[in-house]
Structure formats: structure tokens, C-alpha cells
Amino acid sequence: NGIGDKGIESLVEYIKSNKKLISLFFSGNLIGDKGLSKFSNLLFVDNKNCKKVKLSYLDISNNSFTKKSYIYINNIIYFSSFISNINISYNSLYNEGVSNIFSCINKQSKLISLDLSNTNLNEKSIEFIAEKIDKSILLRILNLSHNNLNKAGSYIKNLLINKNNLRVIKLVFCKISQESNLIFQGLYNNNGLQTFDISSNYLLVDNNLLNDLYSFFKNNKKLNNLIMDNTNIDDFLMNYISQFIEENKGLKFISLKDNKI
Known about the structure:
Elements: H1 8-17, E1 23-25, H2 33-45, E2 57-59, H3 70-79, E3 85-87, H4 94-104, E4 113-115, H5 123-132, E5 141-143, H6 153-161, E6 168-170, H7 180-188, E7 195-197, H8 207-219, E8 225-227, H9 235-245, E9 253-255
């Protein structure tokens, strides 16, 4: 730890010399926009042998770069021949940075997993992502946790309904409450998702939520794993859920830890 912008050149030289390196974790350092620019340019953009860089997993979470760095992240996605997993969580990308990153993700991209947790997103980002991701994009795993998505219910619903290749979505601690029923409407109409995590959100229990929960449990046969830890589930709601589960034919795992049961 403690790698800053000045230490990037040495890091890149090491990566170039190690032909077997497939995973790189340098989270929790001091890499800023200048450092990420150097990393992107030296390793991929200006490197004639960039196709020989076999990195498939890149974790650059919890550094100091901002939304200005979207172009460097895009270059990594575009020029890399192998990178399929990127973790850029805990960096201040905001809507502008994330929207620009998704503008680069297309049918040529090899990206399968993207972690955008705690990157200062709101409903505008989710609206853009929901419109952008379709069947032509390989992306399978999307982590949007620890962002303020309290007004994003309808866009999350669209993300779930739209035909895409997503198999795992994580929405842990996104301040989702009043629009939580819309998310279960989306799950009811989803035909591909295998794991969904909505933990640490305060579900607003009303007739809308009960109806949509019932429709979800009865009709969704694809979801295998549902995680609803710490979501304000009490004995009243649990009574309904236990009845609804009997209608479900697909779930293999459900977690309800840290609730009021």
C-alpha cells in the first residue's frame, strides 16, 4: 500500500516482465487521475505488446481517481485482450464518469464483471445503465452497492426487465425503501438473473410490496439465490414470505439474516 502516481511506472514495468500475471490488486492506494493515465497509457495504449499482457482481473478500488479518469478506464477495457473483471469501487466517479464508461462497453468488450459500489451514483446512472445493457453485451456481474439509489426503483425495474446477460446484481445498502416493490416487479418479469442481493435496505411494507413479492415468488423460476439480510423483515412479513416461498420452483438459497424475525 501507499503506491501513488509516481510509483506507477515501476508497477507497469513489473507487469510487462511477468508474463504469467493474471490478477492485479492495488486497492487502497493513492492512485489519482495522473497515475491511472500513466498505467493505462504505458501498459495498453502505447504498448505495442499490449496483447501479451494477460491480466484478466484488475482491482483498482479505493484509490483517489475521479470522474476524469473514465477515459483511462475505457482505454483499459478497449485495448486489453484479456481483462474480464474490473473493480473500481470506492472512487468518486459520479454519474458522468460511469455513464462514459458504459458508453465504451459494447459487444466487442470482454468485460464480464464490474464493481461500481460506492462510486457516488444515483438514479441517473441507473437509467443510463438500464438503457445501455442489452443482449449484445457480455457483462454478467454488476455490483451497484453503497450508492444512493432511493429514487431509482423504476430504473432498477427496467434493468431487471430488459433482455440482457446479467446473472448477478448486488444492491447492498442503496437506501432503497419506498420504491422497493418496483424492484420485485422487475424480478417477477426477469428470466435470466441467478443471484440478487438487496441487503441493508429498509423495505417499505405495504400492500404493493406484498402483492409484488407474491408475484415474484410465484412466477420467477430462474433466480437461485436471494439475499435479503437486514431489510426490515418482521414476523408479519415473514409469515407472508414463508407462504410465498412454497409457490416458488427455482430458489435454492435465501438469506434473511439480521432482520426482526
